[in-house]
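Work Package 4 report. The design task specified in the project plan requires that, given a folded chain encoded as structure tokens, an amino acid be chosen for each position. We show below one input record used in the internal validation round.
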């Protein structure tokens, strides 16, 4: 632990789309600049405000960003059939074969 009596600890940035994602940062101030829920952090001498929720792994784990597919297998088969019918002359492989 640092010798500094003002040491507030450290946190890991868990928000996938933040430039500091995955980095352990030193906490400099809570509720930074009078903004509730903002944490001022220091990473390699660069200080910036990070919303406190971005350091919470359980909250960030709930974010999916729409990357999980929501298309049914049947719809994919119909799309495959449509694409195959449009390009039969090339002999493209289909999902069912």
């Amino acid at each position: 632990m640092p010798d500094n009596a003002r040491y507030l600890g450290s946190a890991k940035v868990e928000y996938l789309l933040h430039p500091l994602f995955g980095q352990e940062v030193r906490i400099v101030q809570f509720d930074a600049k009078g903004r509730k829920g903002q944490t001022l952090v220091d990473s390699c001498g660069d200080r910036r405000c990070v919303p406190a929720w971005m350091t919470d792994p359980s909250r960030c784990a709930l974010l999916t960003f729409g990357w999980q597919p929501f298309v049914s297998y049947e719809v994919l088969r119909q799309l495959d059939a449509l694409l195959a019918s449009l390009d039969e002359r090339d002999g493209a492989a289909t999902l069912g074969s």
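The chain has two helices and four strands. Validation will be extended to a larger panel in the next phase.
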